[in-house]
Amino acid sequence: MKSFKAPKAALGHLDTEAVATLVAAAADISIVLDLAGIIRDVAFSSDDLLAEFGQSESWIGRPWVDTVARDSRPKVQDMVRAPQDPARPRWRHINQLGAGGASIPILCACSILDKPGSIVVFGRDLRPVSQLQQRLVEVQQSVERGYSQLRQAETRYRLLFQTSEDAVLIVEGDSGKVLEANPAAQRLFGAAARRLVGRPATEPFAIDSRDGVQSMLASLRSLGRAEEIDARLAEGDSQLRVTGTALRHDSGLVFLLRLSPGLPDSHAASMPDGRRNLLRLAENAPDALVVTDSDGVILTANAAFLDMAQMTAEEQVRGESLDRWLGRQGLEADVLLSNLRNRGSVRLYATSLRGRLGTALDVEISAVSVMEGGKRHYGFAIRDVSARLRPVPNGAAVPGRSVQELTELIGRVPLKDLVREAADAIERLCIEAALDITGDNRASAAEMLGLSRQSLYVKLHRFGLGDFDADPKNPG
């Protein structure tokens, strides 16, 4: 430690009060002892520290060793017995007893004064350092827990990755090159698996499938998602279903490509051409075709059903109940499912199908129950019959007939047509009455009838009521 070069010239003019002030300011706690170790005076650098020790005046006249914790007493006795050279003080950790017997850590050093033969103890409060050390330990423990959880997650990922039955490729987002392939992928690609890592992900696929895989990677890169595709391998000509998922990793993107078997080659080879053509016709049929489980939840549907339901993708209807779109909710679907369970099939069931935008179509439904893998499934064929012309010469009812006209048709038209026309007549009368009551205010009429304004406008158009050139959003 470097001392002052000329302490007498620089500090020799200081009186006792000035020296006491310097001693008190030099440490958090200052204790003046006599050579026997008895406390003669105490000073604190702050009122907060003074409050921590309580009645420190009671220390005066007591041995310093009696005011410290039991584990610190040997250190205090050693420091009092052999005070250190002021030029080279030795700092010791002392647990000083505070108010209520609390132990407060103090870093102390002793310096003996020749005149008047006293020992001065300089103490530094170690609590801020202890708190900082405690926080550091807590942070380290938290980091260790985080690393432990990360290692456990990585272990689980590795286990799933290695034991997955589906082939999985990890692809770098920017370059499109394969970073890793699981054992299932290595078995799938055979001899090509040895050179798979580090090569473009499109390389192991057949030439006519590479554009589809490349488009999937581009969609994952730009949108973060992509539709699953069918692809063929370059070796073996196996048909696969490829599903892609985008993941964030080290401020970059990686893609997880899962390759699951498509239609088994043996099945495809044994399937007659006529059966394959039948499947393609079902997908593109003008009538809606829907397959549900035993509870009426949609498993798959063709494009015609999506058009009728006013949906844009099969994913929007998959997992939804067919009851959502049929006639009266909670009734039509229950009738159909009950007949399918009891009879196994339904033919030409007349009802209506509601689109997402409120449009209603008259439809006929035929359905059949089949068993697949020990589970019951239902297939529905839904045909739009709203465009059929009804036989006017025989007096078929048209929307808006009066009750008298409807009664005259009894025996001339089927009962189901009479019921439908009666419902239309009542609906038209209610709408006309609501418009008359509200002064042709469509918004108020819709609220009175419990309809949305858009639904009311569709019904007005259906019954030929009102001005159709007007804006449907205009309440007037």
**Unreliable residue stretches:** 264-269, 389-399, 469-476
Biggest sheet strand order reads: 2-1-5-4-3
Give the proportion of residues in helices.
25-40%
Radius of gyration: 45 Å
> How is the biggest beta sheet arranged?
5 strands, antiparallel
CATH topology of the largest domain: Beta-Lactamase
Number of helices: 15
Strand % is 15-25%
What would the average pLDDT be, to the nearest integer? Answer: 79
Shape: elongated
- Kindly give the count of domains: 4
Structural class: alpha+beta
Q: Work out the number of β strands.
A: 15
- What is the C-level CATH assignment of the largest domain? Alpha Beta
CATH architecture classification of the largest domain? 2-Layer Sandwich
- Helix and strand pattern: HHEEHHEEEHEEHHEEEHHEEHHEEEHHHH
Taking the alpha carbons of the first and last residues, their distance comes to 95 Å
Fourth-tier CATH superfamily name of the largest domain? PAS domain
